[in-house]
Structures are given as C-alpha cells and as structure tokens.
Amino acid sequence: MRGASGAWLCCLGFQLLAGAAFNLDGTDPLLKDGAGGSLFGFSVALHRQLRPEPASWMLVGAPQALALPGQKANRTGGLYACPLTREIDDCWRVPIDEGVDLHKESKENQWLGVSVKSQGAGGKIVTCAHLYESRNRVNQPLETRDVIGRCYVLSQDLTVSEELDGGEWKFCEGRPQGHDRFGFCQQGVSAGFTADKHYILFGAPGTYNWKGDLRVELVNQSSLELVTYDDGPYEAGGEKDQDPSLIPVPANSYFGLLFMTNVHSADPDQLVYKTAEPSERLPGTVGDVAQNSNLGFSVDSGKGLTRQDQLSFVTGAPRANHTGAVVILRRDNVNRLVPEVVLPGEQLTSSFGYAVAVVDLNSDGWMDLVVGAPHFFDRQEEIGGAAYVYINQAGRWADIRPIRLNGTSHSMFGIGLTALGDLNQDGFQDIAVGAPFDGAGKVFIYHGSSLGIVTKPAQVLDGEGVGVRTFGYSLSGGLDVDGNLYPDLLVGSLSDSVVLYRARPVIHVSKNVSLSPQNIDLESRNCPHHLGICVEVRACFSYTASPASYSPRVTLTYTLDADVDRQKLGQAPRVAFLDRKPTDPEHQFSDVVELPHQRAPSCVKATFQLQESIRDKLRPIVVMLTYSIEHAQSKRQVQAAALPPLMPVLNAQLPNSQRAEVNFLKQGCGEDKICQSNLQLRYQFCSRVGDADFLPLPRDADGTAVFAMSDQKDVALEIQVTNLPSDPAAPQRDGDDAHEALLTATFPEALPYSGVRAHDMWAGPGLEKQPCLPNLNGSQVQCELGNPMKRGAQGRFYLIVSTSGITLETRELELELELSTISEQPGLRPVTARARVVIELPLSVTGVAIPQRLFFGGRVQGESAIRTEGQVGSAVRYEVTVSNRGQSLNTLGSAFLNLMWPHEIANGKWLLYPLRLELAARPGQRVACSPAANPLRLALESHGQDRSRREAERPEVPSTGPWWHRAHSERKNVTLEYPSVTSVELLVHANITVKSTIQNLVLKDAATQIPVTIYLDPSAVVARGVPWWIILIAVLAGVLVLGLLVSILWKVGFFKRPRHQQAAVPRYHAIKIPREERQLFRQEKTGAMQKKEWVTNWSEGSDGHVPVSG
C-alpha cells in the first residue's frame, strides 16, 4: 500500500530536480494498489492486446499474494492485470495455476509473479514462480523435493489458448537432482523474449551448485516457424550435454577465498581479496568468473552486440567473483550457448549484473549495454548504487571503458533497469534507472544521443509525489499503451503500488521575431499622430511533431519582454508597449496564438514606444520572446474523461525563447558605426581660503599632494576629462562619441562629498555642465560628462569635499575615480587619488622687551656679594605672547614654550639674571619651568608700585585673549667686562614645541626673537675721574717721546732745506670695512656671549590663554 515518503538524501553528480519534468506526464499519473503484504509491484510489464479486441494492460506480479482456493496453500503469489483507468483498485487476478497435485508438487510460497514479461503489442506474456517445488515419492522414505521453478506463458488476451501456453515451462523437471545439478534450478528468477518474438529466455541461477544457467527456447512452433527456426533449445551448459564445466562461471564454493585489509590505504572501504580464479585474464575475454555467480539472475538479448547480424544473449551473474559479472553468449549448432564476452564487476559485493538492459543509445546500429550494480558504494563520495553504460565499439568490447552513473547513498540505484524506446522521438533510445531507497524512491530518465548517454537526467520521477515508498524497484517501458505512439513507463514498488506514467507528445516549435524599423532614428517620430518613436514587433510560430499524423490544434501563450539586457543590469527599461494588458508591466506584452496543425504558421504583432529623454542611446533594445503551451482543458473536464489524451509538451532540448534587437542610428561613431571613445582623466588636489580661487596643494618629494588641516580651507579635487584621439595622425582609430560618459568618485569617511563647482574652461561640442548626484551619505557621487561626450570634448570641474571628518589619526586621503561609458573603450580602470594629511596647529609666538634700550654702568660686584634683588641692577621685562587661533590642544598633547637668552659670558659671570616667571592672566597660578627662576635664591622685594608702573608701560593685551608669557630678567655690572664697547645687542629666542603621539603635526609661526640693545651710561662716563699722578706720568712720557722724535728727524736731515725739484704727489688708499666684519671685530674684543635655554610649559584655561611674566 502507499505510505509516507522518506526523507530526501543528498544527490551525487547531478541535481535531482534539474530535469524534473519533460515528456513523462507527472501531473496525472495512473496509480494502482494491490493487497497489502502481497508485494504487488515486485515485477511489472506493459502489455497491449490486439485481439480479440484492443486493450492495454498493466501486468503486475505479486509473489506473496494469497493462494487461490484450489491451490491448497497459504501464499502462492499471482499475476494481476490492471486496466488503464483512474480507479485505484480495479486490478484483477489472471486465472492461471489454479489447481495442484500434492503428490507431485507444492505451490506454497512459490513466488508466482517474481518475474513478468511481454512480447509487446499482440504478443505473449510470461510469468514465473522460481520457488515452485517438484516432489517425488511423497510420504515415502525416499521422498525428494526439488525447487526447480516454473514459468507460465499466456496468449495476448491473458488466457491459455494455444498449444504451448500454460505452465509446462519447467525445463529442470526430470533432470538429475541435487544442488550440484538441477535440484535447486530456480527457473524464472528472470525471463524474457527476444525482439523478434521467436525465442523465450529463462534464467536459472541455482543450477549446477548455483553456478547458474541460461536456457533459450522457441516460443512459437507453428509449422512455418518449425521450418524457419528448426533449432534449440539452447543452454549455457548444453541442452544435451548438461555439463556444468561449460558454464562460464565456477560453482558456489568459498574454498580458498581469502579476505584481508589493505593496511597501506587510509580508505576504510578499501578491501583487497585474493582467490584462485581462471577469470583473471584480459578484460572482456571469455573465461571463468570467480566464485558464487548466480548466472541467469537477469537476462536480455539483441542483435548487434558482437556482430550486427547475430543474435546474442546477455545474462547477469551478480555474485560472480564476489563482484558480479555479465556474460554475452551466442548459439552454436549443438544446442549450446557459447560465451563470447565476460564483463567483470568493479567492486566487491556490488552485485554487478543484478539487472541488464540491451539498447542502442546512439543509433549506430550496434546494441549498447546497461548493467545495474545496486550494491556499489563509496562512503567518501556518498554513492549507493551504480549503473554502467557500455557504448558498443563495433563489437570490440575489450576497448570499452564504461560510463558509471551514480546514485545517492543507500539508494540501491540500478536495481531496476528498462529500455524506454525513443521516449521523446528524437531518434535515440532512452533508459530508466530505479533507486527505490532514495528517499521515497526515484526513477531517473536518461536520454540517448549521438555521443551515447546523456549523463544528466532528463527527468526524475519521485515516489513522494504519488505517496509510494520503495518507488522504482521494478520498471517496464518501451511500449505505447495509450495510443499516442509514444512509449510509456510502468513503475513498481515493494509497497503494493504501481504507477503508470504516460508520455506526452513532443512538439518542436519554430519561431521568428522581426523588428521594424531595424534602426531607430531619434529625430524621426513615427508613432501614430507623431507622438513619439515606435517599433513594431512581429512574431511568427509553427510546429512539427512525430509522427506526422499527430497534428492537433495547439495554443501557445507568449510574452514579449523589451529591454531585457537593461533589466538584467537592474536598470529601468526604455520602452512601453502599446495596447498591453492591464496586468502586464509596461515593458511586456503577452497574449495567445493558435497553431491549427503541423507546419501551419501563425503570426502576431505588438508595438512599443520609446520613453522620452532616454539616456542610453547606444546599446540596442533587446526584445525577448518566450512561449509555452496553454493547457485549455479544465480540471472538471479532465476528471470526467476516463483516460483523456495528454496535451503535448515542448521539446526540452530546444529553447522556448528567442531574442531580437533594434539598434539606434549611431552618429559620431565613425564609418564602422562602432563608437570607440578615448576618455582620459587627469586630477589634482586643490584648496582655497574664503572665496579665492582654488590653488593646487603643495607636493612632497615623491610628488604626493600635502594637505595641511585648517579650519579656513576648502579642499577640492580638480578633475579634467578629455575625449580626444589617442593618435592625431590616425583620428579614426578612437576618440568617437562617448555615450553615457560618467565619472564615479568614491570618497572615504574622512572626506565626504560636499559639492561641485564648474571650471571656467568647458570646451568641446555638445559638452554641457552636467550635475553630480551623490548618494545619501556622500560616500559616492556620479557626475555625468555628457550623453554623448562628443569627439574633441574637454571638461574641467572641481569636486569639493568636506574636511569635517578628518581626525588626528587620519594620515592619508584616498579617492577612487572611475570613468565609464557604454561606448567601446577597453582598459578603463579605476584610479586612486592620494593626498598626505598633516595637522597644522595655528599657534604663534611673539615677544617684546620692556624697555628695549638699557644703559650700563656702576660699580662691579661679585656674585657672592649680591644678597638682595636691589643689588642686581635695573630690570628688563620680556613679555612673550602665545596665540592659539584654533581649537583646544587638550587632545593633541602637551605644548611647551621654550625661552633662550644669554645669561652669562664666557668667564661665567652673569649677563641676564632671571628673577621671576609670571602668568599675567592668572596671578598666583604656578607654572612649571625648568630650570626654576632665581637660581641664587636672592631676597625679593615688594613690587607693588613697580608692578603698577610696569603694567602701565606694558602694551595693551589684544581683545582676542591670546596666551601671555612674561619672562622677567635682571642684569647689572656686566658693562665693566667690556670697557671698550659702547653698546651690546642681546637676542632672546622663544619657540613652541608640542609633545604628542600624533606623527603628522606641523607648527607654523611658532618661533620669534626679542632684541634688547644696551648702551654705555653717559653719566657714568662723566662722573668717573683720572688720578693726577697718572696724568703727570702721561705728560712726561709725551715730552720724552716728542724729544726723541725730533732728534731722530734732525739726524736724518728732516730740517734741511730741500733742492728745488718737482714735488711728488702723495697717494692714499682707503679700504671700506663691511659692517659684518666690524661687528665680528667688536665681538672679538668684547668676548663671546653664551646662551642658556630656558623652558616653561603651561596648561590652558577655559578662555584659551595663559600669560606668564618674570
């Protein structure tokens, strides 16, 4: 009975549902149920009766069916005939084998119906009971019981009406008994007829100690046939000789069989066996096949296996050599079947030869062979069952490498095989393979072809869809039972159900699609009333089918879909069909067309209109025609008919679609009408302050643009795009119009798109200032460069970006630029624009000395003599101002003010002595300085009045509230160290440094110099007198020198009167000494002044200013 289907299993080597429906009708199969537990469906056969009246039958074997009353047994099995109706339980038992003679036989558990075959339309039927028991000397001490098997032959009307009809087909009866001879013959495990209907085949796998045997007999013996076919019967062991040594397989013996594991293989399924076997010869040669053969387990026959004019017989031995084998035999003239070819199995216990089918898959006149191995397995590949396809090489079987079709794990793929005939009428025979344990069970349909077998299933039938488990255990095909000249398929199971799948006729549709006009002129409005541009689509259909007599009226449903290529790209179609159905999208037109009979064409028309302002004017508009057969019958009509004719199906091997296209008239694309553009891109980073023009950013040594972060700057990318011929000497090569020219810019998060600004230079015919459209978050923008951007066009514009997203961690800016066009221009690739980012801190430092001029003089005192501030001397106050025009520095790190002044001369004496360091805006706030002020720890005086006086003299603080630092330094007595110098210029250096982990910080205007000039005090010069004794000594020395000079001059005749000669004119030479050298001379005389670095740091307040004075 039908049951719930099992779970789906993984598929190997193919997708199960890929060909889920071709021409076997799975929508309306015929289902028949038998008695529960009877194994109704264990074997099946399609049969067509021609006399006395035409009828078609589904013949079903039920080997566990209950016994008939006259059989005196419990279960005997039986044969059932099912008509082609929609009734599920209208099968009836064929009345054969109704009596029993218990003194000669026993029919208990004889398995009648284990096999069933039909000769075809108008032919005979055979069904067998392989466990039929023959008895001798019943109830006597020497009683014997031999399981010889028995077969029944019926006429086409399922009756025993002819001389050879009935159950006397038991060739093992009366022969030597015992299991080593014919005592366990088991005739009828397999049976069949030759294609010419003259011979009947019986497999007896229990003969000769289960070596097995194959018997071939004439099935028709009329007077004419006796003259024509005066031969037989034939057996593999010889009908007369009955010699087991003639069987091409050994007896059932395990002696000498050795199993051992391959320890060198990691494959757990690898198994090596060794046994003495004469069959280990060249593949395909004749010889014994190893132990436990069961020859005759499956049978088939055909002409053209080894010779085209010779009838050969094929039988399987699934236990031969423990791998299985298939033997091809021929008749000889002494009633023997002589082996010609032995095909060994591939894997241990794979049951190679469990089922066989002879079929010409490639229609070359040579019969091919399909062999089932349902127990083949590969754990790693999850294979469970296989079917081997041998494509005949003109009778040379030794050269054949079979094609293995694999089933899913534990599916027993290959346990059922049948030749389907030409299922789709394409000229090639097809096959069906059953896999009853693949889920609920499946049947795979494979088509033949000129190359042999098409390994991808053309159709997969699933037992789950019909509620049948173990679906596909038995198969029968190759016969048309519904009268449409297409062979049908009957599927059996182990769940007491069978299903008939009828083949639907296959039609081959010819179609043609044309468009008018063939080219679209955008300047010509050809729609009715000149309302737009229209294109007419014309589609014509006709069909052919096999046979030629099959010529019904066929209705096709068709759909025209326009601009399908743009739809695949996710772009909107450019057209709309006129007069379409309300339910159709504007780019589709659907309707039906009737084809009255074969080869009768029918045409339809439809018109579509171009939408206004389309942008894509280069790529053609592609129209796709798709069609299918309309099933006009309603469900009620289908149910009313007992067996309605099936609607045809389209040939699945031919596409049910056709495309056509219409092109635009292409101007600006050269003589070949192929637009080959030459878009080129150049770019550079720019910036501007305020409303000024954009200027290029500076570049570093490697040419990379450097962007200094500042609040006052706008950053832009200057883009220049050209469409010029690459070679002016050959302008026809490229540089044609670039249709839908587009620039796509992708921005980083730190630099989102802000806007676009056109440059003054927009040159070239047809170039317009097109907008740039950004996405929602500004990470990408698309700028239209023209549609088309014509030959010779050039354009320049600025993409303005926002710098608000730049952070301290930003090191580099990258923008991806990509040009695109639908014109032909290979090699257009994205380019990356890069700029290095530096963080420019808007810190500046300025300074002033109060006073800027000083005078020196007084009494020299040593360092140890100075105890108080009053002893140091007059004061110099340095006011240093630090300004931050930007944001707070808290996130950047620590900022430091460095002050350097000359604090001592070369001999170590003080020049400027630091007394205080104060923050003007924050009185009392402590500022960390290194080293500290007042290193000698002098006693400081109260500076209330002085401070007021000095602050009044201090320049007014800017209203912006900058940072103020004041360094207060004192000096005294240094002038006595330079007695010959009247003035000295002292320089104080101030700069700002920032300590931070940020590597790309840049400081600008962060250093200054503060000069102070010191002059000799005039009052000190006047007040200072010279002792008298020094003056006296100086006068006496002068008189002595004068006397000596006069004496010398007198000695040399200086005072004599010269002769009157022409007086010589003296010459003088003046040398101008540069000021720099005079300064150097002054410094050499006064001595070198040393400078000592003075460093202070601060923390800023809420107002952004920290002034310090000292």
Q: What do you see in this structure?
A:
It is a single-pass type I membrane protein. GO terms for molecular function: integrin binding. Residues 843-959 form the Integrin alpha third immunoglobulin-like domain. The two termini are 111 Å apart. Residues 1-20, 252-291, 634-638, 763-767, 944-976 and 1080-1110 have low confidence and may be disordered. The strands form 16 sheets. Strands 48, 50, 52, 53, 55, 56 and 65 form a seven-stranded mixed sheet that branches. The protein is elongated, with a radius of gyration of 57 Å. Helices cover 7% and strands 39% of the residues. It folds into four domains: 16-501, Integrin alpha, N-terminal (Methylamine Dehydrogenase, Chain H, 7 Propeller), CATH 2.130.10.130; 506-636 and 646-664, Immunoglobulin-like (Sandwich); 679-839, ntegrin, alpha v. Chain A, domain 3 (Immunoglobulin-like, Sandwich), CATH 2.60.40; 843-943 and 961-1021 and 1089-1097, Sandwich (Immunoglobulin-like), CATH 2.60.40.1530.
Q: Could you give a quick summary of the protein structure above?
A:
The chain is mainly β and 1110 residues long. Helices cover 7% and strands 39% of the residues. It is a single-pass type I membrane protein.
Outline the secondary-structure elements.
Layout: E1 30-33, E2 43-49, E3 55-62, E4 78-83, E5 92-93, E6 105-106, E7 112-118, E8 125-129, E9 133-136, E10 144-147, E11 150-154, E12 166-169, E13 190-193, E14 199-204, H1 207-210, E15 213-218, H2 223-228, E16 234-235, E17 258-261, E18 271-274, E19 298-303, E20 311-317, E21 325-331, E22 337-344, E23 355-359, E24 368-378, E25 383-390, E26 403-408, E27 416-421, E28 430-435, E29 442-446, E30 448-449, E31 452-453, E32 459-462, E33 474-479, E34 488-492, E35 497-501, E36 506-516, E37 519-520, E38 534-545, E39 554-562, H3 564-568, E40 575-577, E41 588-595, E42 602-610, E43 621-629, H4 635-640, E44 649-650, E45 657-664, E46 679-689, E47 695-696, E48 705-709, E49 713-723, E50 741-746, E51 753-763, E52 772-774, E53 780-786, E54 794-801, E55 812-820, E56 831-841, E57 843-850, E58 853-856, E59 875-884, E60 894-905, E61 913-919, E62 929-930, H5 944-953, E63 963-970, E64 983-995, E65 1001-1003, E66 1007-1016, H6 1018-1023, H7 1028-1051, H8 1075-1086, E67 1089-1097, E68 1108-1109
Parallel strand pairs: 36-44, 37-45, 48-56, 56-65, 58-66
Antiparallel strand pairs: 1-35, 2-3, 3-4, 4-5, 6-9, 7-8, 8-11, 9-10, 11-12, 13-14, 14-15, 15-16, 17-18, 19-20, 20-21, 21-22, 23-24, 24-25, 25-26, 27-28, 28-29, 29-32, 30-31, 33-34, 34-35, 36-38, 38-42, 39-41, 39-43, 40-42, 43-45, 46-47, 46-49, 49-54, 50-53, 50-55, 51-54, 52-53, 55-56, 57-59, ...
